[in-house]
Predict the structure of Molybdopterin oxidoreductase.
Amino acid sequence: MFCPLDCWDSCKLKVKSEKLKVKFEGDSITPYLCWKLNNYFKFPSETTPKYNSKNIMLNETLDKLADILKNKGPKRVLFVKGSGNMGIMQNVTKLFFENYGATFAVGSTCDGLGEEGIIKGRGKSLILPTWIIKNAKNIIIWGRNPYVTNIHLIPMIKDKFTVTIDAIETKTAKNSDLFIQVKPNSDFYLAILLAQMVIESEQYEVSDNFDEYKKIVFSYDKKDLMKKCGINNEELMKLFEIIKQGGAVLTGLGTAKCKECWKTTWAIDSLFYMLGYFGKKDRGVAFLGSSGYGINNPFSMNHKNKVPLWDVNLDDYEVVFVQAGNPLVSFPNRHEWQKLKNKTTVVFGKYMDETAQIATLFIPSKDFFEKKDVRGSYFHEYVITNEKCKVKNEKCISEYELTKFLMNEFGFTGLKSEDEYIEEILNADLEKTGDEIYRKRVFDKPPYSDGFFTDNGKFKFLNEDFEYNKKPFEIVTAKHDKALNSQFQRDEIIYINPNSKNIMLRWVTENIPEKRVVFTENIPENIIYAKGGSVINEFINCKGENAYYEIH
Ligand code: SF4
């Protein structure tokens, strides 16, 4: 069985029953679990369906959903899926809504922007298998805090020389051998600075458009770059010496927070391509890799009707079907999502969260351990299944069961059995390494050792300039160790340095309730630091498919 949460580790776990209580325990590749799963049942789910906040029976809920969809018609229906459960079977509902003709809100709150830059250079964003991380001499953690977000990485790197590059002195930074503190959203400039040094050293690898890249690299002035990053020559030289030796570069969401930051992940890849980091057994670069690579996704489709998530205008829809998400809290563009209160909002989920509370119809979904499913990981090379699920829960409904009901109700054909889908997902080059766990054989070789996933199979260097518009103050968002998105125990505080510029202090006073502000000199000046988006998302506005976190 797997933990379904939107987390790097994708833990394998066992379910134990003790004194009539269900408990989870770590298993095989992840022998222990984090605070969230250890406290899972302290956050009770809602198992009673509701219509206008009144309890109703599950069969009544399903009839009401069918009536709503029949009466309003597909043109007025928007489908929005959050990332509350990362199992592939969760996507089966898309089969019905695609047949029905709804519009899909497509995009990401999280890694989409950084992935965009990686795809430009490599064609696909792949994980770095754990055996390569274990082989690596040095670990370079760039814009990521694995002590909080990826705890099973820590034992793999504890005896290695570790460098952390970040805007905030995180727990990971404190536990590193070298901490390079950069200004927020300046990672592009650091990658360019190091690229200048690599090219000047005359030991580097090239690809087709290298000359174009070199021109961009040297269009920046070294002193200016150092000022923009906020680092000194000594730090720069130390970092340069380490990256020349090779290692595993583990980048995180901290590198891709601003609108143009897709160029940052591309600049980082271009730097390490020159240094020969790809296709090797003891080095590599990984962001959040594709969890679906090496397995099949029977629900992957090109939607007939779609809209970029951050361009959604809810005035265009009457019905919004929200699955496993809490847009009222987790999404930027909050002013737009507030309109859900005036729509026929259907929430299909587990918790009575802010969005469920305002929903016209609440459909309780079965819990992850009550349904069959499969998940990959954006960190490791394993695939974990929930194949032997025996729990009987008749009050709630799984994604597959809801889809089956709707397909029948609307006379749509083509839905396969649950087991057929599971088989299809796993019909890939996998080695069964234990009960409900497989290893992707595609990662027996280093990623990209047979070339890149670009048109000509070669790496494509960065060919775009980047000019970050410096702001009077910056937002830095991170994860909290006791919360995931809007689930569990949120940290609804912003942290600021009291010595920051007046313009920022004034903005905070005018916009954030006093009880939500903590003053600390541990945060650099002129930064608003938030662990999670519940407070700050109110002020973040984005456009397009991929969210970025800037105050305008
Ligand atoms: S939230 Fe992450 S670390 Fe915690 S149990 Fe789930 S996958 Fe593992």
